[in-house]
Amino acid sequence: MIPIDAEAVQAMLDALKDRDVYLHLESTTGAYAAHYDSSRHPSSAFVRNAVIRYERGVISGTGPYRVGLKMAHGWVYCEGLTHYEETETERLLLAGHNREGKLAVALQLSPTPF
Amino acid sequence: MEKRVLAVFPHPDDESFGASGTLAMYAASGAEVAYACLTLGQMGRNMGFPPFANRETLPECRRKELEASCRAIGIRDLRLLGFMDKTIEFEDPELLDARIGAVVRDVQPELVITFYPGYAVHPDHDACGAAVVRVIGRMPRGERPAVHCIAFSHGCERVLGNPDVLRDVRPYLKQKFASIRAHRSQFYVPGVSDGDGRVTRELEERFGTERFWTYRFD
Q1: What ipTM describes this predicted complex?
Q2: B107, B34 in Cβ contact below 8 A?
Q3: Are A60 and B123 within 8 A, CB to CB?
Q4: DSSP conformation letters of B72-115
Q5: How many CB atoms are closer than 10 A to CB A88?
Q6: Alpha-carbon distance B30 to nearest alpha carbon in chain A (angstroms)
Q7: How many domains does chain B have?
Q8: pLDDT for B53-73, tens place per residue?
Q9: Using CA atoms, how far apart are residues B200 and B22, in angstroms rounded to an integer?
Q10: Other residues' Cβ atoms within 10 Å of the Cβ of residue B205
Q11: Structural domains in chain A (count)
């Protein structure tokens, strides 16, 4: 993955709108968060291969980036994105890595299941 | 003094710390004070101290808190624009501008208070201020209301200079503290949320001045 090129990501968001796409959305502090720092509350969540359709998708910010997907009955939101996979042509893989390079958040969209 | 004032903020409680004294001053002077609030702050993390709300009850809690805050300040015209919290920067700018523009045309304010785009920390704040500035900027120069902006990003004075509007709101701290207390799911401010309601010298110093930058359109 390479640092996000917002224009390239925006083009993919536009290409994937108004059709059924598979969503992977993930956020995690890491399971060891409280082991290393007892003041932290470990938390994580993921949704994998939920089918969504959005009418408007926007990448925003100057890095780390945010993405919002507006759907008929709600929103998908993701903050803290830093990298994208530049070799993908059909799918959009976005990740947010923390200072140690660990994954903190991910937002992925694909026309076919992950 | 201006007779019609419009505040435009994205979240219930955005008015409290930065502008409630000023808005109370205008209301007390007999001005019509309107407030367009873009969202219900429904994605907030604060659920009360200790928590009494949940993700599904929070929007209604915050709507009631906002109404109580407006009563405390003297705002009788509250407009909820129905956008989703955290999404203002992703919305179609034309849709945002149309909704805010309709309120501006209806209220015909002589003064608009909002966030300074780019210097207001939260993406919703920046996007709200940017939309207001677009809407007012499109009006003919002679018809534009003054726009007073709240800025608080680190180092904003280095770029914007010092705020040109420094308002002593000590006479309106009772209303300001009632506004802060109204947002009870969001704020717990020692000396304001608890205590005997007395306005101490320390509280006066901390909350007695509100600062705004007049937006320069050209």
Answers
A1: 0.90
A2: yes
A3: yes
A4: HHT--EEEEEEEPTT-GGGS-HHHHHHHHHHHHHHH--SEEEEE
A5: 13
A6: 41
A7: 1
A8: 999 999 999 999 999 999 999
A9: 19
A10: 10
A11: 1
